[in-house]
Amino acid sequence: HQLLSAIVNVDSKEAKDKLLRWILTADFDEDSCLSRHQSSLYRKPSPHKPSEYLISKLRSYEILHRRCGPGTRAYKEATKNLIGHDDENYANRSVGECRYIVWVAAFGLGNRILTLASVFLHALLTGRVVLVDQSKDISDLFCEPFPGTSWLLPHDFPLMGQIGRYNMGYSRCYGTMLRNHAINSTSVPPHLYLHILHDSRDVDKIWLCPARDGPDHKVPWLIVKANVYFVPSLWFNPNFHTELIKLFPQKETVFYHLAGYLFHPTNQVWGMVTRSYDAYLSRADQTLGIQVRVFTRRAGYVQHVMDQIVACTQREKLLPELATPVINASRSKKLNAVLVTSLHPEYSNNLKNMYWERPTSTGDIVQVYQPSGERFQQTDKKLHDQKALAEIYLLSLTDNIVISAGSTCGYVAHSLGGLKPWLLYRPVSGRVPDPPCVRAVSMEPCYITSPSHGCENKKRIDLATVFPFVRHCEDTRHDGIKLF
Ligand code: GDP
């Protein structure tokens, strides 16, 4: 870690070289987004290299986005068609040269990052251009990922005032139209709304299945509101399957590569990341991230979660045991830095006291640090979201990571870092689960509410039994699936 910090300060040429060998384009001004050039220097070298095919696909996508993005003739043409023809049949109309998929900002930051990556992969597979709803604070969090253009949906987009309110009851909701038999091969509406939330019906999830030349393929504008990582279900579409295998020969690296390509914290957030890293993590011999998210109705400090954290980290030997009897062993003195993130500061305070009041059996030193303790979720408040992103990013820079079951912030943190996390099972009836945690089989996030069917036929199936590289998530009781 010391070495890494030294490199960061002195050698930006090396950073550029790394960038070129990686999947990022070099067509950016370094100062406008420092994280893009510096983040690989804060990470250990990764054994997971992107495929040549993914790199070339991204370069082609960047060209497409420049040709179709905001401010282009193609964009003007496409938005012109969007208004004034609302009830017309588009089958025989020219729909312009570009087709789009709009990501609507909804739910917490972890959900947003997972769904934006999912929507981007869908865009890559279908030749669409992804545009991002900027009505919330997305541009305070992330730099532009595509050179010479913008991914932000312009404020004057014709449907701007409506997209946040779309739901299953909306007449252009794809699932609702399917249920009402209002979609057929001759009717191509100017836009469709896709509802990929935890409460989606099977008809809503079917949009991931249609044939390449189906009517919804021609729809110029898809508007997506999602809060789940739906990437695993893309593999069930036979039209995408071969392409996905070429793009991601190592299946568990999908989010890792896409997130590394798309999500670069703005300079303000990156400053928070690097200041914390340099002060608390850079000198440690070993770093551990612990992300604590409690989903009980009465939020706050919960003693059995504290006990669970201690039980998990000791059982899995992620932290040293306390000495019994209390003698000051002086053998090792290795520095273990523990980064705790939580809305509540009590978890890290207790851990800190535990390792201050008594020595460890190995003589190792344990230093505990928690950047913020915001107490309650304040999504869309700029500084609150920036702190949440900085903490997710910091977690991703640790050597080992423990996360709370079913938390999208935790999923993003471990997957962005290319780490297989230890998952703290969700406690039932206020008791510490036994075992308290489990090591995940892969670094991919979980699709928490996956479909109950594949694409081949309408029969209900267990999706975890179809491909050898899809299995149930370790941490969800229901039908979650993940790639591994
Ligand atoms: P999930 O609910 O855990 O799946 O994650 P989400 O990102 O969807 O929603 C949680 C939101 O609560 C985050 O976006 C933050 O606004 C806030 N939050 C939760 N845990 C933390 C934390 O450890 N640190 C900070 N700064 N914010 C948090």
TrEMBL record:
Any one Gene Ontology molecular-function term assigned to this protein's record: galactoside 2-alpha-L-fucosyltransferase activity
Enzyme Commission number(s): 2.4.1.-
UniProt feature coiled coil, ranges: none
Topology class, membrane: Single-pass type II membrane protein
The keyword Cell wall biogenesis/degradation appears for this protein: yes
UniProt function note: May be involved in cell wall biosynthesis.
UniProt-listed PANTHER family: FUCOSYLTRANSFERASE (PTHR31889:SF69), FUCOSYLTRANSFERASE 2-RELATED (PTHR31889)
Protein name, as recorded: Fucosyltransferase
Organism: Brassica napus
Biological classification of the source: Eukaryota, Viridiplantae, Streptophyta, Embryophyta, Tracheophyta
